[in-house]
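Task: sequence design from structure.
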């Protein structure tokens, strides 16, 4: 697997299995890779006849030496089954240039509240935001007056890749509120936290946190159905298109409710 003018020859440095079909990997890109929190990287593998490439949201922050990804296995996908087989030391390709505009907006006057809504691996760009903000906070460079409010959804609690980290940060800083919720509590009897789909809880927590169309921006990332439902709810409470950002994690077929996974739907 050779590097070229468009690609690094990257190497897996760490793998953490979170659930049977969810895992996190960290890679050494093999060169300088500068990105903004919320952007994505394109990963690839070479086959005997072709190259497979897909885009994946970055979970790490720019100050971290390695690049981290939170990935869901798509059993019949073209790339994720191959990525799933990678272990520490294995190589893969990564495009040298990050892409994406799903970044934290801190320059819109009066909009200092950031409502972050995610499902499962859709939390990845928000982890990047929060890690970067934590570093800025420690260095006295955090944007004054801004606050992040994260609703993090999954079917069952073992699908949360970063719940402990996010809850710990939320306890330590005044600028982060974090709520994790599961939609299938009957399959997770030990869970004692919030229950329900994130889009069903969106209005409840927007009201509780005092978030509205005049003081907030909304960011939606993950399942396409969640995003559509959340946009409709936000629109009803006054959020216009200019104040809502979205990152869809796959595009459902026209004749089915499911979807063919593409990282971030790009």
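Answer:
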């Amino acid at each position: 697997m050779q590097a070229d003018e468009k690609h690094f020859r990257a190497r897996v440095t760490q793998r953490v299995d979170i659930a049977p079909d969810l895992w996190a990997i960290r890679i050494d890109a093999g060169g300088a890779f500068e990105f903004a929190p919320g952007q994505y990287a394109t990963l690839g593998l070479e086959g005997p006849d072709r190259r497979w490439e897909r885009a994946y949201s970055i979970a790490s922050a720019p100050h971290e030496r390695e690049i981290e990804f939170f990935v869901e296995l798509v059993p019949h996908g073209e790339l994720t089954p191959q990525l799933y087989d990678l272990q520490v030391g294995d190589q893969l390709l990564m495009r040298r240039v990050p892409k994406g505009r799903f970044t934290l907006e801190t320059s819109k006057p009066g909009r200092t509240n950031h409502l972050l809504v995610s499902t499962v691996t859709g939390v990845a760009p928000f982890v990047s935001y929060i890690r970067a903000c934590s570093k800025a906070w420690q260095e006295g460079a955090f944007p004054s007056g801004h606050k992040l409010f994260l609703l993090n959804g999954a079917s069952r609690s073992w699908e949360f890749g970063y719940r402990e980290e996010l809850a710990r940060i939320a306890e330590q800083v005044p600028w982060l509120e974090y709520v994790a919720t599961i939609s299938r509590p009957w399959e997770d009897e030990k869970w004692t936290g919030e229950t329900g789909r994130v889009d069903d809880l969106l209005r409840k927590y927007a009201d509780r946190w005092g978030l509205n169309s005049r003081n907030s921006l909304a960011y939606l990332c993950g399942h396409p159905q969640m995003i559509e439902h959340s946009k409709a709810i936000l629109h009803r409470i006054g959020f216009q298109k200019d104040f809502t950002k979205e990152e869809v994690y796959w595009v459902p077929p026209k004749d089915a409710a499911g979807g063919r996974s593409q990282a971030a739907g790009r």
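Residues 14 and 50 are 26 Å apart (CA to CA).
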